[in-house]
Amino acid sequence: MQRLFKFFKKSDKSNTKKFESELDQLELENDGLRQSLASERSRNVDLHTNLENEREAQIGYRLQAIQENENFEKLRMIQKHRNDKNSALEKDIEANKKHIEAFKLLASNCGTVFDPEILKKFLKDEESQREKYRLRTMKARKMLQKAQEKKEGDQKAWSLCEVCAFQFADTEKQAPRVLACGHTICQSCIIKLAAQTPGKIKCPFDRVSTHWSDREIDICLQKNLTLLHL
Ligand SMILES: [Zn+2]
Ligand SMILES: [Zn+2]
Asked: Which keywords belong to this entry (predicted)?
């Protein structure tokens, strides 16, 4: 009995050792697996980041394509606008040709018979032509102003001279000056307008005259201080 017990004790000891070494082996394997899982995970994160970057790049390309399309559309509009303008100019040239014919006729008639009716008609034509040009110039100014506003974004319409579309400023050239009719335009535009009608200025918006002299500019035309201080 004593011997049998000894035998069991011995075999138990050797079994424990065997299990312990197996356990060590398994733990080692487990560590290896854990490490490869971790590296797999980090690779996954990298792939995910790459995917995100790729997606963002794609969005960027798409936006670029949209922008390019818009630019193309703008260019097309500009081209169309130019074509329209060209055909308007061609019509103008036609009208001017007729005008010259009328003027020639008038000149030849003046030499022989003076006809006040022809002269009156001629003057009327001239006036209507001038009015047409004035309206067209105003339209172009409005367009220029709109374009300027778009470009400068936050600049308000009332801070720009409606003739040249430059911003008013407290300088000699860009000072806002009030005409007798109440319209405000910049000083450099006033000087240009004054050159057309000496001693007075005709408002480009309503044709109202304002008395004006170069030396008394501060008396004739008040500065619009409200506009300057807004
Ligand atoms: Zn006016
Ligand atoms: Zn101006």
From this structure: Coiled coil, Metal-binding, Zinc, Zinc-finger
The DSSP secondary structure of 64-117, one letter per residue, reads: HHHHHHHHHHHHHHHHHHHHHHHHHHHHHHHHHHHHHHHHHHHHHHHHH---HH
Angle at alpha carbon of residue 209, lines to 203 and 213, rounded to 5°? 100
CA distance 204 to 102: 28
* CB-CB neighbours of 8 under 10 Å: 10
CA 51 to ligand 2 centroid distance, Å: 55
CB–CB of 185/212 below 8 Å? no
Range(s) of the domain holding residue 121: 86-154
Overall domain count for the chain: 2
Residue 26 lies in a domain: no
Asked whether residue 92 is assigned to any structural domain, the reply reads yes
| Distance between Cα 203 and ligand 1 center (Å) | 5
Question: Is 164 in the same domain as 139?
Answer: no
> How many angstroms does the Cα of residue 209 sit away from the middle of ligand 1?
8
Question: Residue 33 above 90 pLDDT?
Answer: yes
ipTM of the complex: 0.83
Does 77 reside within a domain? Answer: no
Among the bound ligands, name the one nearest to the CA of residue 183.
1
Residues of the chain with pLDDT > 90, as a percent, come to 33
| Residues 102 and 163 occupy one common structural domain | no
- Residue type for position 161: C
CA of 147 to the centre of ligand 1 (A): 23
CATH number for the domain harbouring residue 207 = 3.30.40.10
| Alpha carbons 83 and 98: distance in angstroms, whole number | 23
